[in-house]
Specification:
248 residues; alpha/beta; four-stranded parallel sheet; 8 strands; 17% strand
Length: 248
């Protein structure tokens, strides 16, 4: 029996333990009948700046414990909910991680970084403006990751201060909006807001309306790919073009 809160599919999430925004974002995005289940993962220091070394450590952290806890609910799709953890390793690592999670769990799997690439391909974006709360070194790696997947970054926006884990999650939607605006370029096909702990979902429709081009965010892109993998063609309004229409 389908209830608005469950009955169609179960989505499971591996979430960095300091992340405060992925879960609220998914509550906003959740399609009717889909239940959401979360497990926290570590592998980095809460009190350190989330730089390339910290995120590299998260990407290689042992997932057996949190994955085993998550598998208790038998999710249909598992989300690897950190973008920078695999951006810092490269596209081959990202694909391999998704394959390993899928093989171990038996569930379809999406990663945040891989989902960004997937959404950009669906909307036909090959040139982008890129924005994130990351340190500059991770942005360099993110842009190289996207370039290896055929996406060229022609404009880039960064925060002016080095943010810790708390600071990244504490950015307001208005601040995210300004960050996204600063990444725009006349020749950009789309804007990417990268980071599962940045409050992009609340601001992406405003940004898309203002710029007149698709805005792709980590959490929105993960949900979009997961819906496709689950065979669900829901069109969700208010969260950007990629979710608002059915794609062939």
């Amino acid at each position: 029996m389908i209830h608005p809160s469950r009955g169609r599919a179960r989505f499971g999430f591996l979430v960095p333990f300091t992340n405060r925004n992925l879960e609220p974002d998914m509550a906003l995005l959740r399609p009717t009948g889909v239940s959401l289940h979360f497990a926290r993962m570590g592998g980095y220091d809460r009190d350190e700046i989330p730089d390339a070394d910290q995120m590299h450590g998260l990407g290689t952290a042992d997932l057996d414990g949190p994955l085993e806890m998550l598998m208790g609910v038998r999710p249909d799709v598992i989300f690897y909910g950190c973008t920078s953890a695999t951006l810092t390793h490269g596209a081959a690592f990202d694909r391999d991680l998704a394959a390993r999670i899928a093989a171990q769990s038996g569930a379809k799997t999406v990663t945040a970084a891989g989902a960004l690439v997937h959404a950009l391909r669906v909307v036909g974006a090959r040139r982008i403006g890129f924005a994130s709360p990351y340190v500059s070194g991770i942005n360099d790696m993110a842009i190289a990751f996207l370039a290896s997947e055929g996406v060229k970054t022609i404009a880039r926006s960064e925060v002016t201060a080095i943010l810790d884990n708390d600071g990244q999650g504490a950015m307001t939607p208005d601040r995210v909006l300004a960050l996204g605006r600063a990444a725009d370029h006349a020749n950009a096909d789309a804007i990417v807001l990268s980071c599962t702990d940045m409050r992009s979902v609340e601001t992406l429709q405003r940004l898309e309306d203002a710029l007149g081009k698709p805005v792709i965010t980590s959490n929105q892109a993960m949900l979009f790919q997961a819906l496709q993998l689950a065979g669900m063609d829901d069109a969700l309004q208010g969260f950007g073009a990629v979710l608002a229409r059915k794609w062939g």
